[in-house]
């Protein structure tokens, strides 16, 4: 088992590097395209790693959000935020399910959430009534959370990360193209 753990970590790191390389290549595109299309490509790339980690990916996409197009640079920021959130699920959540939710909030905002059942699952498996313990490194975040926050700021978006009724959630709320960033 001690040999398997480093090999698993190495495989995850290499998979993550390949996804990042593909995202970088995709960012060379200059045309706008539907965000849902870019997310579908990301799904295709990260779903094998999720499956290998025993995590099922569930898509919940709002029809009103399916036609949203973003400039290539903004799409890249969104994809990297989602990728980081999914990588965190694989590495830290001990989850069995992760939901990717995309929905329009009115005519001016778009919400994208990555929600896992990791914390909830651990609490239900323990079958004890105890306060939820979240390690300080998760609450205060490391470089990954700081990078997600920086990318959200570049999008004039708000990023929240923390406990959720289903487990743990990373939620990005951003202005739709053509709306004021307020």
How are the secondary structure elements laid out?
Blueprint: H1 4-26, E1 33-34, H2 35-52, E2 56-61, E3 69-70, H3 72-93, E4 97-105, E5 109-116, H4 118-126, H5 136-140, H6 143-154, E6 158-164, E7 167-175
Parallel strand pairs: 2-4
Antiparallel strand pairs: 1-3, 4-5, 5-7, 6-7
Helix pairs in contact: 1-2, 1-3, 2-3, 3-6
Describe the structure.
This protein is an alpha+beta fold. The protein has helices at 4-26, 35-52, 72-93, 118-126, 136-140, 143-154, and strands spanning 33-34, 56-61, 69-70, 97-105, 109-116, 158-164, 167-175. A five-stranded mixed β-sheet has the order 2-4-5-7-6. A two-stranded antiparallel sheet has the order 1-3. It starts with a helix and ends in a 7-residue tail after the last strand. Mean pLDDT is 82; it is low at 126-140.
Summarize the structure.
By secondary structure, this protein is α+β, with helices and mostly antiparallel strands.
User: Given the structure, what is the number of helices?
Assistant: 6
Extended strand count: 7
Q: Give the termini separation.
A: 51 Å
The percent range for helix content is 40-55%
From the alpha-carbon coordinates, what is the Rg to the nearest angstrom?
17 Å
Q: How does the helix and strand content classify structurally?
A: alpha+beta
Main sheet properties: 5 strands, mixed
Strand content: 15-25%
Element order: H for helix, E for strand: HEHEEHEEHHHEE
Unreliable stretches (pLDDT < 50, length at least 5) are 126-140
Shape: globular
Task: Record keyword descriptors for this entry.
single chain, 182 residues, alpha+beta, 5-stranded mixed beta sheet, two-stranded antiparallel sheet, 6 helices
């Amino acid at each position: 088992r001690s040999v398997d753990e480093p090999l698993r970590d190495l495989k995850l790191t290499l998979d993550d590097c390949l996804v990042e390389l593909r995202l970088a290549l995709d960012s060379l595109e200059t045309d706008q395209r539907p965000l849902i299309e870019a997310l579908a490509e990301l799904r295709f790339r990260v779903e094998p790693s999720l499956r290998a980690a025993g995590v099922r990916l569930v898509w919940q996409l709002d029809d009103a959000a399916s036609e949203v197009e973003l400039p290539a640079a903004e799409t890249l920021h969104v994809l990297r935020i989602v990728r980081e959130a999914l990588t965190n699920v694989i590495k830290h959540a001990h989850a069995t399910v992760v939901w990717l939710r995309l929905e329009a909030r009115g005519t001016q905002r778009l919400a994208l959430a990555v929600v896992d059942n990791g914390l909830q699952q651990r609490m239900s498996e323990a079958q004890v009534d105890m306060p939820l313990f979240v390690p300080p490194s998760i609450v205060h975040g490391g470089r990954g959370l700081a990078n997600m926050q920086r990318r959200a700021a570049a999008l004039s978006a708000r990023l929240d990360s923390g406990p959720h009724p289903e487990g743990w959630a990373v939620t990005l709320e951003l202005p739709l193209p053509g709306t004021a960033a307020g």
